[in-house]
Design goal:
single chain, 26% strand
Length: 98
């Protein structure tokens, strides 16, 4: 795969050749969620003793931030049952029940 990508992209070939790899231990990420929008989280990565080359990554939002509120919305969405489906709310349901 590396050979194929290198042949197709000089930029990839140069980046692969320099192999500037550094581990991440604590940084931030900006994610976009379809239901709640932008999420800005910080993460910390920890090495796992007895499991070489593996890390435990913990993500968290700043307290009282818009991201924390979005996580609470997602938690609520995940724990509340879906409302009952009716033929009006799901047109395909009427055909299935006939």
């Amino acid at each position: 795969m590396v050979t194929e990508l290198s042949a197709q992209s000089k930029e990839f070939a140069n980046l692969w050749k320099t192999h500037e790899v550094k581990s991440k231990s604590q940084e931030g990420k900006h994610l976009k969620h379809l239901d709640v929008g932008d999420l800005r989280v910080k993460f910390a990565a920890f090495t796992v003793n007895g499991a070489p080359h593996q890390q435990l990554v913990v993500y968290q939002a700043e307290p009282a931030s818009p991201t924390a509120a979005a996580f609470e919305t997602l938690r609520t969405m995940a724990t509340e049952p879906d409302p009952p489906r009716t033929p009006e709310s799901a047109p395909g349901l009427a055909a299935e029940n006939q």
